[in-house]
Amino acid sequence: MKPPSKRGIRRAHELLIEEYGTRTPLVRDPLDGLILIILSQATSDINSDRAFRTLQERLPSWQAVLDAPLQAVADAIRCGGLANQKAARIQQLLREIYSERGDLDLSWLHDATAQECIDYLSKFHGVGPKTIACVLMFFLGKPAFAVDTHVLRVTKRLGWLRPQASAEEAHRVFAVAVPDDCKLDLHVNLIAHGRAICRASGNGGPQCGICVLRRHCEFGKSLKNAPLSTAIGGTRRAGSDFFLTVQPKAENSAAD
Hints:
The chain folds into two domains: 6-24 and 145-249, Helix-hairpin-Helix base-excision DNA repair enzymes (C-terminal) (Endonuclease Iii, domain 2); 28-139, Endonuclease III, domain 1 (Orthogonal Bundle), CATH 1.10.340. The protein is built from 13 helices and two strands. The chain has helices spanning 6-20, 30-40, 45-58, 62-67, 70-76, 83-101, 114-121, 129-139, 149-158, 167-177, 183-196, 218-221, 250-255, and strands spanning 22-25, 244-247. The chain has a two-stranded antiparallel sheet. Helix 2 (30-40) crosses helix 3 (45-58). The radius of gyration is 19 Å and the shape is globular. It starts with 5 loop residues before the first helix and ends with a helix.
């Protein structure tokens, strides 16, 4: 199967921006990012954010988290779910970083290239392509494209991937196929679209009749009877979400 064309990706990117807006990453400590991503697994953004804040309040440095008893770390992040497993993972990651560097300072990654960041972060147990891409996009402001379950589902329906493609394959394909200037917004907007419109079969299924991508979607074009409309309404996101800030829509900014 041929990889998706950059022209097709850009067109989908533009349509999704019209619906969901653009984002600006909150560049910050990459080690914060690694810990946040561990805490975000299998829970809501609200719960993982609360767990992160509580952890910082009780153990105000990553060295303190590393030195603390495992139970103290687990108790601090209890509201985020799977506390024992996540606490063990966090301390293991901190031990590996300290053993490799002699400290827990990863601020040097801000000045490294994207590939240098990928090569370094790949050394650590349990830090896979999705985690690395999230750290690069959301915490280092570097080009990367993370593939989660929503991104994988939507891009398969669009025809950008083989139906049997794994997340690992998707990361390899999209690292090259998605233009760097599209990666952040496309990632976040595909997730928003997957939650609101291109839903999983067990969650109401895809709402192809009101999908702005239908004319560009292999799955959508295969449907003969669903009425076509672009009046989504109510799907745009506002305010702040977990990793970044939602900016005003492009046309509103241009009018200022």
